[in-house]
Every structure is written in structure tokens, then in C-alpha cells.
Write a structure and sequence with these properties.
The complex is a heterodimer.
Chain A: H1 2-24, H2 30-55, H3 63-83, H4 89-93, H5 109-133, H6 139-158, H7 160-163, H8 185-211, H9 213-223, H10 225-229, H11 235-261, H12 271-284, H13 289-306, H14 315-329, H15 333-364
Chain B: E1 7-16, E2 19-29, E3 34-38, H1 45-53, E4 60-66, E5 72-74, H2 80-85, E6 88-91, H3 103-110, H4 117-122, H5 127-140, H6 155-167, E7 173-177, H7 185-198, E8 203-207, H8 211-217, E9 220-225, E10 228-233, H9 235-240, H10 242-247, H11 252-255
Parallel strand pairs in B: 3-8, 3-9, 6-7, 7-8
Antiparallel strand pairs in B: 1-2, 1-4, 4-5, 9-10
Classes of the chains: A mainly alpha, B alpha/beta.
The structure holds adenosine-5'-triphosphate (ATP) and magnesium ion (MG).
Chain lengths: 365, 256
């Protein structure tokens, strides 16, 4: 649909204006722009999640895992930049005397970027291959995705000499150096626009792949998996491919996120963090790429503005309530509301007034 | 035309946790015929189709498919997508079309070939394929409905669409599980005529309860009862058979 692209363009233009507004003084705190940068990362992961859930009908409650894998890969590179390639403090404390093997690739930027793609692709490829080959679906898949995420979380905590456990990887700058303070504003803008470009590319990729026969097949799998098998498709391969694609997108989002956040911790790979991502997609409108983006921005902006005041304690409940209401009454989320429910409501109203007019005119006559 | 049966069902038994849904079923399906499997509820008809198309694995026995050019393929043990690629399509008992896609997209996904991920991302259907889709839709009477979302079709139209989705694959064998279920007299008749039209190009296996429909279209009828073959033959012979009538007793309306 053309309207989606127009809507997306508007969002991108608004985002692109943010640094300018900051420069002109309309936005007072640079932290606002940093926060919007994080929202861009969230929008990216939401698009990936939408591919697998909205289109293919596979509800993954563990995408935080891939988000964090990408995040850690980025953070490890940035950490080594900060230490000048030397072994880190937490490794010392953990009893290591030299840089562990798994950290070595992250000395080098191109290799680190490759890792951001390759590691989640391998992990999700293996998981997807075995799960989908054995035709695990529905709730069972969701539960397994949670369990695996939880397992990964425990491993990251347990391997604290390598991962710094609970604390995660902190005290890092960005891919172009420090972005804090006024004198580094240029760096911040570079990172911000870089993130925006990645979001646009992800959008283009998602739109392209869902417009092809491949995208239609994903919808077909959602509508009737059996029928798809009996149309001659090797459904498990398609599901695995879609899953890997969405995992890689999540990882890229994680890498973007780290640049704005300045750290990555295992809490980004928890189940609750993963479920929050699902909520963004549901509220925005699953099955439409633009819906995922809108959902990610709206929920996070609300959280940013509301959760700091008196609502901080009940914010979690509010968000839970919004989710439940969406699932029960607005299956298509906000996009569905604008696209279907409001138009039908308006046409109903129109019909009513049409029905009333002839009655009136009769009276007049 | 060669005379070997297109499908040979040999000594097939299926056991679900100790319950035999099929016991030692044997049947041959002739090329370009409309072969009916009938029988009371629970006779094992759907299970038999499940066996042929690879959805269920038989406990014992084999299903052999003989191609036009004289090859034999053992279907038992092949995954379903490969059986489909051999040209054996199936319509389910519950109409199952892709309800959020348009009629045309439903057909596009069903086209023969181009089933790999790469093909799906980068491939474009050819002009001939689009024409073929139009041609098939015309035959089942859905030409006017091409751009409509399949979920909004009437029940009968969904059944026809699903038949069309089988046809567009240029199949060797089409299996239809109760294609006329839930249809009115007129629609049922039309379905029968569609089947007679397409049997020139392929073999059709049908499960159906409606005896008028059986009379209208069947070449050969196999009666299943409690998982066993009761009898097989031409329509009138079979329906006149006393055992068959006894089996259908209480469903006398159907045999009348
Ligand atoms: N997966 C299964 N597990 C256990 N029992 C099954 C299974 N599938 C079918 N059955 C049993 O096998 C028997 C045959 O079922 P089947 O669906 O083949 O009957 P049918 O002839 O198609 O009946 P109908 O006319 O109602 O469609 C039934 O008693 C059914 O309960
Ligand atoms: Mg049945």
C-alpha cells in the first residue's frame, strides 16, 4: 500500500528534524535525542518481530535474545576500543590474564559487524531448523522461545569473566567516539542519522520481502500451514528463513541500541523485555510493517513521558492493560483501527444519516 | 495410453494407538477416471487420503504411484511436499484456502514449480502462468472473483477455489475430500460437471456422501466400512449390493 510508504516518510522526516530542533534550541536536552535514537532501534526490532509474528503467525517471546546478541557484539567491539585492545577489568577480576578467544574478533570493526549478523543467524538458524522441522508450533513454540532465552540469560550471567555477568558491558562510547557533551554533538548527529538510515533500509527490506511471493507465502503459512505443505512448499525451510531474517534484524537493532544506551546488560535478553517488544507490535498493528514502527515509538514515548512522574509505579499495569485491550478488541492494533474499524464506523454513521434523511424529507412533503 | 493403474494401494493398514482405522486395504485407481470412496462416518476414508498424500504414515503396506511414462514411485515414506511435486494434489474436508490473500494470490502460490525460497523472493510468474490461472478460474466459474479476498468468498466458491488451486498445478491425481459438503443441489451438480470436465486431464479421487453426486460423476466406487474394503465396482452394481445397503442402513435416504 502506498499510504504505508507516505506514513513512513512522514515519520522519517520528523525523526530527521530532531537533531536540527536540538541545534535550534527547540529541544532543550540532548538526552531526548538519544532517547529517540533508542526508539529507532526499538522500531527496527519491532519490524523484525512483525515479520515472524504478524506475517508468519509465529509468536516468538524470545527476541530479546537476538537483540542482546547484536548488542553484545557491538558492545564488545566498543569496549575493546575503550581499553585499547587490552583485557578489561572484569576479566582481571574473573581471573583471566589475557584476552579470551571469543573476544578476539571484536578487536576489528569489519569483523565485529560481520559477527553482529553471523552469530544471531547461526543461533536462530539452528533453533529454527530443529523446532520447525519437528513441526513445533503455536504456544509450544512460544514457550520454547522463552525457555531458550532464559537459558541464554543464565549462561551470560554465569560466564561473568567473559560477559561481566549481571552488570553487563558498560563504560563504552559509540562507533564514532564519544557523543556526550556539547563538543561531541557532531558525533551524536552522525550516530543518529546512521541509525535512521539503518531503519529506512530495514523498512525497505521488510517491505520488499513481504511484497514478493515469499511474503505471500508467509501469510499463507499463517492462514493455513497444512494447505501450504500440500501446495508443495517445504514449509519448515520458509519458517526457518523468516525466523533467521527476523533474528538478524533484531540483532542489528541491538547493535544500534548500544550506541545510544552506552551499555548492554543481560536484562535486554530477559523474557519480560522480549514480551515488551511483542506489545509494541501488537499495539501498533501486526501484519503491517508501519504498524510495528508506530507501536514501538508510541509505547516508548509514552513510557518516557509518563513513567517518570506519579505513574512510575503503575506504568507496568497500564501497559499490560493496553495490551490486553488491544488483543481483545483491536486485533489490528492502531493501524487496524485507522484502516478498518474507523472507516466501517463512519460508513455505519453515514448509512444511518442516509436512512434518516428520506424520512425527514417525507415529513417535509 | 498405458493401462497400468495410476495408483496402487497395497495392503495398507493404519493403527492409531491400537485402533485400526484401516485394515489391509487394497485398491487400484485407473488413469483418467473418477474414483469414489464412500462409506459411513468413521469408515476411514479421510485416513486413506492422509496415507496417499503423506500426512499419515501407514502401519503396514504401500502406496505406489505409476507415472504416465511408466515409472513407479513409492509414495509411502515421502514427505508431503515431495508427493505434491509428483503431481498429487489434495483438497481437504474443511475448505482451506488462504483467507487473507486474494483469489489470484491463492492461485499464484499453487502454481506448479517455483517452490524454493530463492524462487519465491526473486521469481516472477510468467505471462503463460497468468493466462493459465485465468483459464483455470474460468473453468471453475471464479473468473469474476479474481481480486477478491478469499476469506470473503461464499462457502461453495471456497470449495471451487480449492479445486482450482489443485488444478492449476497441472496435477496427475486430485484427491477431494467431500467437495460438495455444505453445497446446495445446484452447486453440487455444478461441482460434478467441473469434475467430469477435468478428468480428461487427470485422475480424480473423491470422497462423498451425497449419492446423487456419486451417480452423477462416479466411474468406479469403492465402499469402505470400518476400515475395510467392502466392495468395489460400477456405481449401480455397488449401490444395488445388499451388504452396502445394510451398512448404510439408517442412512437409507442416502442410498434411496
Ligand atoms: N489421528 C487420529 N488418531 C486417532 N484416531 C483417528 C485419527 N484419525 C482418525 N481416527 C479415527 O479413525 C477412524 C476413521 O476416521 P476417518 O476420518 O478416516 O473417517 P471418515 O471415513 O473420513 O469419516 P467421515 O465421513 O466422518 O469424514 C475414526 O474412527 C477416527 O476416529
Ligand atoms: Mg472424513
Amino acid at each position: 500500500m502506498k499510504k504505508q510508504n507516505i506514513c513512513f516518510t512522514i515519520i522519517v522526516l520528523i525523526l530527521a528534524a530532531m537533531p536540527i530542533l536540538l541545534q535550534l534550541g527547540f529541544i532543550t536536552a540532548s538526552s531526548t535525542v538519544l532517547f529517540i535514537g533508542k526508539c529507532i532501534a526499538f522500531a527496527i526490532v519491532a519490524m523484525g518481530l512483525d515479520l515472524i509474528w504478524g506475517y508468519t503467525g509465529i509468536l516468538s517471546l524470545g527476541h530479546g535474545l537476538y537483540f542482546a546478541l547484536g548488542g553484545y557484539a557491538m558492545a564488545m567491539y566498543l569496549k575493546l576500543q575503550a581499553t585499547g585492545g587490552q583485557i578489561t577489568d572484569f576479566m582481571h577480576i574473573g581471573g583471566l590474564t589475557e584476552l579470551p578467544m571469543i573476544w578476539k574478533p571484536f578487536l576489528n570493526l569489519p569483523l565485529s559487524i560481520i559477527m553482529i549478523f553471523v552469530i544471531p543467524a547461526i543461533v536462530s538458524g539452528l533453533i529454527g531448523y530443529f523446532i520447525f522441522k519437528n513441526r513445533v508450533k503455536g504456544v509450544y513454540f512460544s514457550i520454547i522461545s522463552q525457555a531458550l532465552t532464559w537459558a541464554a540469560y543464565s549462561i551470560f550471567i554465569a560466564l561473568s569473566p567473559y560477559t561481566n555477568g549481571n552488570v553487563g558491558i558498560t563504560e563504552i562510547q559509540t562507533i564514532v567516539g564519544s557523543i556526550r557533551g556539547d563538543k561531541n554533538r557532531m558525533n551524536m548527529f552522525i550516530v543518529f542519522y546512521g541509525a535512521l538510515i539503518i531503519m529506512v533500509l530495514t523498512y525497505a527490506l521488510c517491505r520488499f520481502s513481504t511484497s514478493t511471493k515469499f511474503g505471500k507465502l508467509l501469510i499463507a503459512i499463517r492462514d493455513g500451514e497444512n494447505r501450504t505443505y500440500f501446495s508443495g512448499y517445504q514449509v519448515s525451510h520458509f519458517k526457518t528463513f523468516a525466523y533467521v531474517l527476523s533474528a538478524v534484524i533484531a540483532a542489528v537493532a541491538g547493535a544500534v541500541f548500544v550506541n545510544f544506551n552506552g551499555s548492554i546488560t543481560p536484562s535486554q535478553m530477559t523474557i519480560s523485555y522480549s514480551i515488551t517488544m511483542v506489545i509494541w507490535v501488537a499495539v501498533g498493528g501486526r501484519g503491517t510493517i508501519i504498524g510495528a514502527i508506530i507501536g514501538a515509538f508510541i509505547i516508548n514515548l509514552c513510557e518516557y513521558n509518563l513513567s517518570s512522574g506519579s505513574l512510575v509505579d503503575i506504568w507496568q499495569y497500564i501497559i499490560g492493560l493496553i495490551f490486553v485491550i488491544t488483543i481483545l478488541f483491536f486485533k489490528g492494533g492502531l493501524v487496524g483501527l485507522v484502516r478498518e474499524q474507523i472507516p466501517t464506523f463512519i460508513s455505519k454513521l453515514k448509512n444511518k444519516s442516509h436512512a434518516e434523511t428520506p424520512v425527514k424529507s417525507k415529513k417535509g412533503a | 495410453m498405458n493401462n497400468t493403474p495410476v495408483l496402487e494401494i497395497k495392503n495398507v493398514s493404519v493403527c492409531f494407538d491400537g485402533f485400526y482405522a484401516l485394515t489391509d486395504v487394497n485398491a487400484n485407481v485407473k488413469r483418467n477416471s473418477i474414483h469414489f470412496f464412500i462409506g459411513p462416518n468413521g469408515a476411514g476414508k479421510t485416513t486413506l487420503l492422509d496415507i496417499i498424500c503423506g500426512k499419515t504414515k501407514p502401519t503396514e503396506g504401500n502406496v505406489i504411484y505409476n507415472t504416465q511414462d511408466g515409472h513407479s514411485v513409492r509414495l509411502t515414506g515421502l514427505p508431503e511436499y515431495q508427493i505434491v511435486r509428483h503431481g498429487i494434489g489434495r483438497k481437504f474436508q474443511v475448505p482451506s484456502v488462504f483467507k487473507s490473500l486474494s483469489v489470484k494470490d491463492n492461485m499464484l502460490l499453487s502454481l506448479k514449480g517455483h517452490k524454493s525460497i530463492i524462487d519465491c523472493i526473486f521469481g516472477k510468474p510468467s505471462k503463460e502462468e497468468f493466462e493459465h490461472i485465468d483459464y483455470v478460474l474460468e473453468r471453475v466459474g471464479l473468473k469474476e472473483r479474481t481480486d477478491i479476498c478469499a476469506g470473503t468468498l461464499a462457502h461453495g466458491e471456497k470449495q471451487w477455489l480449492e479445486i482450482a488451486m489443485q488444478l492449476v498445478q497441472k496435477p496427475e491425481i486430485i484427491m477431494l475430500d467431500e467437495p460438495a459438503a455444505g453445497m446446495g443441489k445446484l452447486e453440487t451438480f455444478k461441482t460434478g460437471e467441473i469434475l467430469k470436465d477435468i478428468k480428461k486431464e487427470c485422475t480424480i479421487i473423491v470422497i462423498e456422501h451425497d449419492m446423487d453426486f456419486v451417480r452423477q460423476t462416479a466411474d468406479i466406487v469403492t465402499v469402505l466400512h470400518e476400515g475395510k474394503v467392502l466392495t468395489e465396482g460400477l456405481v449401480d452394481e455397488v449401490l444395488a449390493n445388499e451388504t452396502v445397503q445394510a451398512v448404510y442402513l439408517g442412512r437409507s435416504k442416502a442410498v434411496s
